[in-house]
Design goal:
The chain is 79% helix and 0% strand. By secondary structure, the protein is mostly helical. The chain has one domain.
Amino acid sequence: MPSTLHIFAFALVALGMVLTPGPNMMYLVSRSIVQGRVAALISLGGVFVGFVFYLLCAAFGITAIVMAVPYAYDALRIAGACYLAWLAWGALKPGGRSPFEVRDLPVDGPRKLFVMGLLTNLLNPKAALLYLSLLPQFIDPASGPVLGQALVLGAVQITISMIMNAAIAMAAGTIALFLREKPLFARLQRWLMGTVLAGLALRMAVESQR
């Protein structure tokens, strides 16, 4: 069982990650605005399965393999920094768009909604980065079985992600309408998100050189 301090610290990291715009948030928000809240929640079910897949892979040893190969670990962290920098540029560049802006999506059935949510998460570099790079830093072998700690921490992350993503998806239409009527807030939101992402990218790039 991980220590209370490690659980709390990892929960804060997980919260920061889920509030950082990425493929999951953008897809769920767009789906909620275009097709409705129920469609977004069905897609969120696929996102949930994707997180469970990553958690089980990490818990049963893939993380250990990556961590044991320095070049692979550095490559992952550099790739993560590049990805965050790309997201930051998408928010800060002239004409950049907020994840709460309406995007055209086809009206899909429940099965396709679920599959698209799953694929969006499985192909999400942020999810891979979370489990392959961040999760091991909160595991202490002296505190008990590594597998148990990984499963507990993963459960914390998945719970936080599901609650926050569901809340964002449910409120997406209201938020989008507010930002459309208040363009200044939309610009401030884009710049705030872009600045945070750029800072995270820079920090990750610097840490990868240590």
